[in-house]
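Bumping with the actual sequence this time:
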Amino acid sequence: MSIETYIPERKSLWPFYHEISQYEYANQQRARELIDLILKEGLDNYTATPDLWHNTAMVAGRVKHTIAQLTFVEAGLREWPDNVDLLCDELQYRHTTHYDLRKAAAIWQRLDELPKEITGPYWRFWVYGAIYHAVALCNPQKGLELLDEGLKWVKRDGLMDVLRNYRRVLVDSIPLEPIEDNRQFSAYQKRVFELLEDRYLLGLKMGVENGYVLAVELARLYQEQASGGILDRLELNGQEDEQSLHTSSNHYLQRAMQYLDLAEILYTGDPNHPIWEIYEVRARILMAQRRYGDALKLLSSLPQNRRNEPSIATMLNLAIRITGEKIETDESVSSSFNELLSSLFQNDGELLFRIASQNPQVARILRNVVQRL
């Protein structure tokens, strides 16, 4: 008589993911404790879709549990060994947080051997592959080729992810070619700038989703280039008055403003890219142009949490002092605070109770307050 080995059915990872997602920002320590428990139990007791393994790894990373971040991806790959997103995740980790170039090379080989019909639609294949070659292998030319090829394969909703990483490959890695002297360096910088502008404009012409983000990036690029005209004049003449120096940079700043105008036209209200990002860049350029009154109007319109950011607060205070103008008190802050209190105390404090139940620090503070009363 044979005795069959009992293999328990694996549990869904979804309830665990749902639970730690609730603690992701409210109580990261609790999220890490729950992650430790499931790692101790063993991830092979669980099953999930590739997206769920990926998303769980992302949460682990955001709560700073980097060991678990890789462990969730590896568990996902044991269940889905040819999943492109999970392979790309491990490729990224193997040359960053879990550095192992030998394993990274093996993963890239595996990805590269898959048919392009499988890997092509995934933006991570092209982007993570480009970053791996440009940064880890010091081969930005290969990275550039991958991004260019990716534009031909990736679906429309992933094109922005490809386009936004050209800067990582062209600027944040070693040069595409050897540079022997300052003259060559200046020419190379100009070439890189033109390459970036060309790719961003291509994205805008293609009508990519959230194209206004590219327009803002182009504005930043032109603002960064504004120093070129100033330095050229200083090198040629040795000394320039302040007015001449600002005139020499004006072309770049005006071009930046034109791209910000385009960004406002294209803005579609995506919550991941709030419109104040456009106005912050515009305000910084106005400050550089000594247009303090115009800058003050923009700075005072920013959300209160942005106005409290040190560099924004400094510009705001300077603009107020130079113009002598006063900004109106933001009454909406008081109104929002009252609305928050009202929601916390509705239904006999039900929302406040839930928050305290899920966050021991809040519960401890509330107990102390009650005792003091």
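The tokens above came from a reply further down the thread. DSSP finds 20 helices and two strands in the chain.
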